[in-house]
Design brief:
Belongs to the protein kinase superfamily. This is N-terminal kinase-like protein. By secondary structure, this protein is α+β, with helices and mostly antiparallel strands. The protein contains 24 helices and ten strands. A five-stranded antiparallel sheet has the order 1-2-3-5-4, covered by helices on one side. The protein has a three-stranded antiparallel sheet with strand order 6-8-9. A hairpin with a 4-residue loop joins strand 8 and strand 9. The longest helix has 37 residues. It starts with 9 loop residues before the first helix and ends in a 7-residue tail after the last helix.
Length: 597
């Protein structure tokens, strides 16, 4: 953490937690760049700092110019101003949190595949072109400093124009650049005024800068030995359009936006026709799309496209747009699948802050299609939901699904309980949930619902308290064994078989086994087979119990006599008696077991 350099104007700097300096950036700029965090909101920000060492230096005026411009120029493609501080020692500008493009591209080379990297570059260059068009045409300003060091990338993957210290009116001569920047960034007509005899459009200087930026995106930052005429690793279909940006004569240069348009008009050049740009543009204009079928088609195709998009753009650009489109754009339930797919890219903290509030809100919607999607996707997000959120906000909404007139919603609600039950409170589980499941299992008109509810209860039976298991769960299973729908009877037998350890031996002998016996001659072969297997299981259990009880009796009798007999003789006698009696009881019980066939 940086402390000493920030002592001046401590009231201002006390609002921020200043972290590490971005290495290497100050070598190519008049600014030093720091990562920071606003203490009041914990919002990540960037701080650009200019130290005033010589008040007469031209760089001081440039820094002041930059501060003036960033305060007044507001555009999605221009670095977002947050705060500032100016005094006799320094000038500081606080902006949205960004990464220098040169660092972003280096990281992208390691983390993105070729397709993702090209998608990211196309998205970024389009953003820069839009920003320059705004400055050149709407503001009548030239940036005069476009290069890889004046472009920054925010958390959404959006490229932002910075380096505003060289801005001037389109009618004025551009000021000199930072002395650390290579003269390759300077257009030929400025280096050699003789080449300015045929002036180009007001955008000519920025077009040259745009060309340098395009070159650097596919190669490395320009050096004295670099040549913008040698396209290097740039895609061939893009290079012929790129050459129109770096024409020696400014008269023949095209504007940055015309460069984009010429690429789009060329059937062979697909660089700015990527699925990523189509997605972002569609989401920006979704309010204009009226047909629900068109929206559904788009969102269904988007789910499969997301894997080819850079993750930062998915998480911080596309996801907020999707959530906004769902809440305010009548996008419908098809939008939920891509939302949950992007959710898999989020960290635990990101999921909690971005998606959980959205999920809670979605459960309040009455739309059946939305509820169906939520229940289908439950497995993908239930792990991120805190227990109190599930019990207080999600579960009460889920309960409504048990009473829905739509069979599919009732069935999906039953299946969802398998994921929610382990996180329910004792009251919600043993009282609220069981009340609804009991009604479904005994009264629902759909046999499939009754069967699935029985299966659900069988799977979560061990979660109920012992009193509920004996007094409610077991009677339910026994009652459902008489259901007219064979799969429901089969599910009831399976539920008893899975949970037999929950019920005491007395209940097994006097309640469960008598109910199973008629099912051994059930018309349905699956029910017959499972009933017979379950009976055998219970008989073996009772046999084992009988052996243990007999052993206890014999041991007790032996201990009673031991006080009057020789200890060694007693031990031998007891051992012999235990073995004989146990074998005798075991043989008696075996004679009662069901025979195969």
């Amino acid at each position: 953490m940086w402390l000493l350099p920030w002592s001046v104007n401590s009231d201002f700097y006390s609002q921020y937690e200043i972290n590490d300096q971005v290495s290497g950036f100050s070598e190519k700029s008049i600014w030093s760049l720091f990562n920071a965090k606003r203490k009041s909101t914990h919002e990540a920000v960037s701080i650009f700092r200019f130290d005033i060492r010589d008040p007469t230096s031209p760089s001081v005026d440039r820094a002041k110019q930059s501060l003036k411009r960033i305060k007044t120029l507001r555009h999605p493609s221009i670095l977002k101003y947050v705060d500032s501080c100016e005094n006799e020692k320094s000038i500081c500008i606080v902006t949205e949190n960004v990464t220098p493009l040169v660092d972003y591209l280096e990281k992208a080379s390691d983390e993105f595949n070729v397709t993702q990297r090209e998608f990211s570059i196309a998205f970024g260059l389009l953003s820069v072109a839009k920003g320059l068009s705004f400055m050149n045409n709407d503001c009548q300003l030239n940036h005069n400093n476009i290069n890889i060091y004046s472009i920054f990338v925010n958390s959404s993957g959006v490229w932002k124009i910075g380096g505003l210290e060289c801005i001037c009116s389109v009618d004025d001569k551009p000021p000199p650049r930072h002395e650390c920047l290579d003269e390759k960034y300077t257009p030929p007509e400025i280096l050699d005024p003789a080449k300015a005899r045929h002036p180009g459009g007001k955008f000519a200087v920025d077009s040259w800068g745009m060309g340098c930026l395009v070159w650097e995106c596919f190669n490395k930052p320009l050096t004295p030995s670099s040549s913008v005429k040698v396209v290097g690793k740039m895609p061939k279909t893009l290079s012929k359009h790129y050459n129109r940006l770096v024409q020696t004569s400014p008269k023949h240069r095209v504007s940055p936006m015309d460069f984009i348009k010429s690429c789009n008009d060329d059937d062979e050049c697909k660089f700015f026709k990527s699925p990523l740009l189509d997605t972002i543009l569609y989401l920006e204009e979704i309010q204009l799309v009226k047909e629900s079928s068109e929206k559904a088609k788009f969102f269904n195709s988007l789910e499969s496209e997301l894997e080819s998009f850079p993750s930062d753009i998915c998480k911080n650009k596309i996801l907020p747009d999707l959530i906004n489109a769902f809440e305010y754009g009548d996008a419908g339930s098809p939008i939920l699948n891509p939302i949950f797919k992007i959710g898999k890219m989020l960290s635990e903290e990101e999921y909690q802050s971005r998606l959980v509030p959205c999920i809670i809100k979605l459960y309040t919607y009455k739309d059946r299609a939305t509820r169906s999607k939520l229940l289908q996707q439950l497995d993908s997000y239930v792990g991120y939901l805190a227990q109190n959120v599930i019990n207080d906000q999600i579960f009460p909404q889920v309960l409504q699904g048990f009473m829905d007139s739509n069979v599919m919603i009732r069935e999906q609600t039953v299946k969802a309980i398998l994921k929610l039950a382990p996180k329910l409170t004792s009251h919600n589980l043993n009282d609220e949930l069981l009340k609804h499941l009991s009604r479904l299992i005994t009264r629902d008109e759909e046999g499939g619902i009754r069967a699935n509810t029985t299966i659900c209860l069988g799977n979560i039976g061990k979660l109920f308290n012992s009193e509920t298991q004996r007094t409610i769960l077991l009677p339910l299973f026994l009652r459902v064994m008489r259901d007219p729908f064979p799969p429901t009877r089969h599910a009831a037998v399976a539920a008893v078989r899975v949970n037999e350890s929950l019920f005491p031996n007395k209940d097994c002998a006097m309640k469960i086994m008598p109910s199973l016996c008629p099912l051994c001659i059930d018309p349905d072969p699956n029910v017959r087979r499972l009933a017979s297997k379950t009976l055998r299981l219970l008989v073996e259990r009772l046999e084992e119990h009988g052996e243990k009880e007999a052993t206890k009796v014999i041991e007790q009798q032996s201990l009673t006599k031991s006080s009057n007999e020789n200890p060694d003789a007693v031990a031998k006698f007891a051992s012999t008696r235990i073995t004989k009696n146990a074998n005798s009881i075991k043989n008696d019980l075996k004679s009662l077991s069901i025979k195969d066939g």
